[in-house]
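Colleagues,

For the teaching module next term, I've prepared a clean inverse folding example: a structure given as tokens, and then the sequence designed for it. I'd like students to try predicting residues themselves before seeing the answer, so please don't circulate the second half yet.
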């Protein structure tokens, strides 16, 4: 069983979208042994996904209506095999909660050298959400390519 945790700030935009994308990617690849969750470093427990995230996810056939934000905790970090964060400060927070060695910047883990932060669309226009969702989709695919690569064979 591989347990993935996506982390952003409020757990209402980027990480819930990444969670939904990863869940769909696992299903499409026939991976029944992957569990996915998300959390925020400054989340308001129980908050729904933002309107923008809900709408752009629906455009891509994903339903975030049942999502509820949760605060990143030591228990959450310790119960996941891989923690993928949207920005450097999210990495620092997860590592401070015991995630050292299992926590990575999403874009770095997906194979972009030093990587970069995923822009937070919160409060922006729908196009900002669409752009973020598109970027997350590409990164999540690369993450699964890396996770499913056969040892001894370069992923590609």
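(Answer key — instructors only)
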């Amino acid at each position: 069983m591989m347990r993935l945790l996506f982390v952003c700030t409020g757990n209402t935009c980027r990480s819930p979208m990444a969670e939904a994308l990863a869940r769909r990617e696992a299903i499409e690849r026939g991976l029944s042994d992957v569990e996915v969750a998300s959390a925020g470093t400054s989340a308001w427990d129980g908050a729904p996904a933002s309107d923008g995230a809900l709408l752009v996810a629906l455009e891509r056939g994903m339903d975030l209506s049942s999502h509820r934000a949760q605060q990143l905790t030591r228990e959450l970090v310790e119960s996941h095999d891989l923690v993928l964060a949207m920005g450097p400060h999210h990495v620092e927070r997860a590592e401070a909660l015991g995630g050292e060695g299992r926590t990575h910047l999403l874009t770095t883990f997906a194979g972009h050298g030093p990587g970069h932060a995923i822009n937070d669309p919160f409060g922006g226009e729908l196009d900002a959400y669409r752009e973020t969702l598109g970027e997350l989709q590409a990164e999540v695919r690369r993450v699964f390519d890396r996770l499913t690569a056969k040892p001894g064979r370069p992923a590609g």
